[in-house]
Amino acid sequence: MIYMADTANIEELKKLYYYFPLAGVTTNPSILAVEKKPISEIIPAIAEIVGDGMLHIQVSSTTAADMLREAIKYKEHFGLGDNYYSKIPVTKEGLRAMRMIKDAGINVTATAIFTHQQALVAAQAGADYVAPYVSRLDNISSHGIEVVEHITKTLNHFGYECKVLAASFKTVDQVHRIVKRGCHSATINYELLEALRSHPMTDMAVDRFAIDSQGIYDIEF
Q: Considering 14, 87, 163, 170, which one is annotated as catalytic?
């Protein structure tokens, strides 16, 4: 199980990368729009923070040919390597583009997935990651956790190299439950990543340690 940050906020990413063992960062047009900065400015700043970690950048094009050109352009323009993943929605044109982008030597993350079959078709089209939306499925009574579980089991059963990158979380419990069901990875916003690592009992224990250490930790360093 690996964690990625689902944010394009530079200050949030700096705080997270200070301590959290993140595998990378995911973005999409909606996340980028929140920052009110053009992609030409925000992606280099994210790439600098991510380093060798994964960077997932979603295309805005709607035809397969344009998706391919856009995916290639980002890799060249931003000087990205094998850590770059082009995010492609599972539309008709997107599915066609996935194989074309893979043939061009670029990794693919299939996004906007809401069903088990969408994920399986995307995996067959060559996607390296498939990203089902947990909370959005829950909001339409489609049981996002179960969908993630079914996708994960199917990919594992048939031996696909494609992995599940669960997205769209509202609670830590949702993350906990997809982990229990064997999900390979999750991309999570800043607030939930902070909540994942924290617990009031941990704070109480650390406060107690600080008190009890007084006078007995006498070796200077």
A: 87
